[in-house]
Structure formats: structure tokens, C-alpha cells
Amino acid sequence: MPPVMEVSQLGVLSDTPDFKPAGESLGVWRTPNFPGYLFKKYNAEVCRKVDPAVLDRLIQQPHVLSDPSEAAFLAASTSWPASRIIEQQRTVGVIMPEAPPRMSVNWLPRSYTNPTVRHGPIPIDYLAKNDDWLEQRQIPRQSAADRDALCRSLVRVACFFEQCGLVYADWSYANAFWQPYEHTVYIFDIDGSSYGPRPHVFTSEFEDPLTPDPQPVDNYTDRYRLALLVGRIITVRRSQPDVKAALAQMAGPVPQTLLAMLSGSGDRTARPTLTQLAKVLGVLALQTKPIDKTGVGGWRPTKGQSGHFAPSRPNTTATVTSPPAAPGWRPRRDFKGGRPTHPPPANGGLFGGRAVAPPQPSDRSEPTPVLPAFRLPPPPPPTTTSMRTPPTTSSTPSPDWPAKIGGMFVIAFVVGLLFLCGYLIF
Question: How far is residue 186's CA from residue 82's CA, in Å, rounded to a whole number?
Fold first, then answer.
């Protein structure tokens, strides 16, 4: 699929969206020319704010995974945007995969009299309910081992986000599905993610007390929200105080790590990383490659894009598999890039935000290439004459014609005056 497409290439869309509008979209349509994919159309405000270069970088981000099995896991667990959609050279949305059929099961949305069985995916919200509540809706009861498997799948994806410097910010009940038989998750609405901090994203019942509105959200906020979601799944509690109280009664490194992420001892920067949470859960984090100058191996903004590259986050992740100074990407084999530095743009995210400081310079000896957006034009090649003719040591200045003409006029005036005087005397 091309990384950028015209909306007309999607086929004839229905007059009304297949999924009702929500958040920053005017609706979501199924695409006739691309079965299994959805077109998310942005509203006017998002169309004005979206940075095409950052969105293109996000679309290419999964290419960081070198292991095909890990890339397959990410594709099976996320609705990663596949192409930027434009109309008259203006970004109007993205196309992304629809939740695969395996995520849909038969269940009862409500346990009312004469309920109707629904075949579809289950919101992850339901994992905060106990087994009796699930059973009333014909959803299998979930053992502690089942919930643990679901959490590992969730944290594995979240760890990839953090290693790439992505701020998802939408960890909540509404943006993930879960499969009660395979114990897997499926995360969507990824196109709104940013590289580095972004303007505050309010999420009901997931607000970080150490990041109140209107403070920007960042990776520290993501750690809190993800920890709260995982804590609700394993404790079968809903409110934050109840989750913390239940975790405090549990033994082992997992509840202790979750508690530290939920509190941070008053210091949000002291929260354990998602990689540390993955480690205590026994999850092998996805193996990412070091990033190149732009954040995507071999990618450059196309003509007409801003050319701004979102900054990488400060190095706060410990024991990550990627280099600590720049977690994320490595240049492809056919790309002659160097170690990244990510110059920060004016806005730090896809829809704007606060720029963050670039990572510290690398200790590698190889030179860092200059970004194309800031590269000076090469000097013109020397001509044949310049190569054969030695440079002159002196040059004759051009004549000062105004001064010469003025001098001639003065001489003529004096001669005429003398001639007149002689005529009058004699």
C-alpha cells in the first residue's frame, strides 16, 4: 500500500460513515478498494493542525522491527495507520486495518430480558468486571493466568511505543479490544500519537494526578495510565484507590512495580519504565533497531511537507534494547545515515505540542549527516578556464566616468572664461 494516497483511490465511499464520529474524526468508512481497511476522516481542526511529515514517520515506524515474527505480532495487535490520505494536496485522514475477525466473538452486550447476541470485539473495559458479570454476558470466565497473559500482550505493545519515543496518551477503556479465548489485545487510534510531549489529552478515569490539565502529556503520563489499566485487569477493581489498595495486598514484583508507576513517590519522573514492567511480567520487549537521522530508515519528507522531524523523548528508559541516546530506529542497509540527533520542531507532536530537548550527542566517531532540510547547496564545479589560468595578483580598477566628465566640463568652462576676458580687454 502506498504511504500516501488520494481519497479517490479508496473507491466510492458510502454517504454515511460505517462507524459514528468520535474524537478528532468525522467518521470511519470501510474502503471498497482495500477490503479489511478503514478510512478515518479528520475533522477540519485536525486537518489544519496535522503535520504530514510526522504522520508519514509514524506510518513507517513498524519497519524498525528486524524480526519478522515481532513485526507480525505488532501487526496482529495494533491498528497501525498504513497510509496518509490526501485530497487536493491536503491531509484529510488515514487508512488503517480493521480489527481482524479473530477478535470478534459472540457475547451479550446487556443481560436484559430477551437479550440479543452480538458478534463483535469486546472492549477492554470489561476486564475490570468480575467473572460472574462476564458469565452473565456469555463471556468466558478469566482466571488469574488468563488475565496475566492479556497484560503481557498489552505491555509488550506499550513497551514498543515507549522505546520509539511515542506518546500514545489514549490508554483507556475505549481504545483497545481483547480476545477472551486467545488472551490477546488489539489497540487502535494510534494515528494521534506524538513523538515527545503533546497537548493534554483528557481520558475519563485515567487522569494522572501528577500531570493535571493543562500540562502536556508525555511518556511519564503513559506509564501511569498503562499501569492503571493493567492494575484494573489483574485486581478486577475499577477506581484508582481500589486498584492501589488491592495491589498493596498482593506480593511480588509486578504489583510493587505497578504501585510505583501509579505513585512515583510524588515524582513522576521516578516512575518505572514500561520496559521494567515488561521485565517483571516476563515479557521480552520487541527488539528495535537504532534510529537514523529522521527516525525512519531512509525516509525523507516529500515535496511540500514541512520537513520538521519530531524530537525523540529524553532518555528515561532503562535497560532498553536500543541505544540509550536514541531509542528506536537504525538506518536500513541501503541508507547511509548516521547516529540521530532529532532537531526539535516548533511543535512536538502530530497535532502540535511542546518540543523536548534532543538527546545527547553520541560517543560514536562517525560523523552525523546534515538533515536535507538544512543542507547547504554544494559549491559549483571549477570551470576549465579557472583550472588553467592562475589567479591574478592585481587588477586594473574600472575608470570613474562621472569624475572624468566633470573634470572636462571644468576645463572647458575655464577656457571659455579666459577667451571672453581677452575679447573684452582687447
Answer: 16
Q: Does the pLDDT at position 19 exceed 60?
A: yes
H-run or E-run covering 27: strand 25-30
Distance from the first to the final alpha carbon of the chain: 106
Has domain 4-280 been given CATH number 1.10.510.10? yes
Phi, psi at 194, each rounded to 5°: -130, 160
- Helix ranges (H only) for 238-393 are 240-248, 253-263, 274-280, 384-388
In the numeric block, which cell numbers belong to residue 236? 478486577
pLDDT in tens, 361-416: 444 444 433 333 333 344 445 444 444 444 444 444 455 555 667 677 777 777 77
Residue 250 exposed, middle or buried by CB count within 10 Å (0-12, 13-18, 19+): middle
| Torsion over CA: 361, 363, 364, 367 (sign) | positive
Q: Where are the domains of the chain?
A: 4-280
What are the cell numbers at 17? 460513515
Q: Which residues contact 365 (CB under 8 A, 6 or more apart)?
A: none
Entry field: residues in the chain = 426
Residue 35: pLDDT above 70? yes
Extended beta strands in 98-192, E state: 105-107, 118-120, 122-123, 166-167, 176-179, 184-187
